[in-house]
Amino acid sequence: MSIFRRRRTPELAADLGSGFWVTEAPAMQHAILGALTRAESARAVVPVELTFDAGAEGRVVALWRNLIVGFVPDDVAPTVRQQLADAGEARLVTSGLALPEGREWRIWAGPPWLEGTRPPSYPASTIRPTPPAIFGIQLRTPDAPA
Fold it and tell me: DSSP letters along 25-56, please?
């Protein structure tokens, strides 16, 4: 046995029903763009492998390539939280899609919607995006109050 071999954490597929939008896309754009490769950012749909984990204040976070890219919606969070507890040491994972919508990327968790149908509408965000800053000094933007 080599000391350099890592023990792989087992994975458990999450049961997400028909799927859902991972919330807070506007506030998480920096992380989502950081997870995309240059080739992926030019595509219309990018397959993703998401991992769920417990977050602060009872939230459930969605991670893609070890970056937090959003949160499980409040109406689905209790179910996913229970699955996390049942998983024990195993990682709770699911497949999904990253889709550009306008200037933002959005993350869908779970099975894709039926072909020929429209996806469900994206929920309203509750976290405001971080204002642009240079070295921690916030920049004024045209839509900022004076």
Answer: TGGGHHHHHHHS-HHHHTSS-EEEEEEEEE-G
